[in-house]
Amino acid sequence: MNWDAIGAVGEIVGAGAVVASLLYLSIQTKASAKAMRINAIYDAETAFASVNYNQSLDPRFADIASKAFQPDARSEDFTATELNQLHFAVRGCLQHMQAQWSLWREGYLSAEFWERRRRWTYEFVSLPVIKPMWDAEVGQFLISPEFMSDIETASDATERASLKIGGAS
Description:
By secondary structure, the protein is an all-alpha fold. It has one domain (about 35-169). The protein is built from 7 helices and no strands. It has helices spanning about 5-55, 60-70, 80-105, 110-125, 130-140, 145-150, 155-169. The longest helix is centred in the N-terminal third of the chain and has 55 residues, at about 5-55.
């Protein structure tokens, strides 16, 4: 028996096993990354669904929120307690959005998904009753400067989209 030949065969088998292991690891890594992106999308959608559902459970707060989302609403239309309740709800919503922004930055949410959220958030924080709350959150450093900038520059994208829609009519 030639020990050199057996050693050479062993090295070839070992190299093949390493290649097979690397291929398997690559496939598993891609599958894991895909699963993480799917979970991130699911979590992002269910977070908003939960917010909306919870608002439906309290008819009084649903009325407050509906009134606040009107473009002609004014802070004077609300009691101090209603404004405080609304502010906490806005803070929670902004924290959800900032979490989704972080997932997008890390590559777990698609650009298309984030762009829809970004435009919605821009329109939301532009509402007359909500804008001072956005400013307060920014002033208290609860909103990261990068997130704030991304949301505030969404006006350009929103204007371009409305021009396309308006031009297509």
